[in-house]
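Subject: design request, 105 residues
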């Protein structure tokens, strides 16, 4: 059985793996995400904004309706050209002031 389910590319062009273990972790701890597999992947590929997370992680955010957002936490290793999803969650609050992408000019 293959460990990864899918690989998508972040806005930095880094391949981000979603493993079977991580997907089960996500839906086990956030059962409201069970039907949102494709949305989790597309949030990494086409986020509305990205904010920094803890320990060097990134959080891709995508609007899912009025004041309803999907956040996907992932880690990139640019020198290895590798990355992976850690978790995902729904939220009603985001701090756009912390956005690191898109870059404000």
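Subject: RE: design request

Done. Sequence follows.
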């Amino acid at each position: 059985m293959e460990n990864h389910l899918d690989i998508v590319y972040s806005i930095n062009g880094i391949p981000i793996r979603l493993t079977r273990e991580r997907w089960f972790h996500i839906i086990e701890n956030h059962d409201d995400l069970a039907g949102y597999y494709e949305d989790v992947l597309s949030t990494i590929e086409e986020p509305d904004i990205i904010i920094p997370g803890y320990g060097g992680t990134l959080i891709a955010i995508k609007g899912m309706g009025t004041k309803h957002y999907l956040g996907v936490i992932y880690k990139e290793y640019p020198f290895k050209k590798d990355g992976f999803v850690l978790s995902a969650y729904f939220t009603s609050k985001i701090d756009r002031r912390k956005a690191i992408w898109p870059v404000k000019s």
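The CA atoms of residues 63 and 71 lie 9 Å apart.
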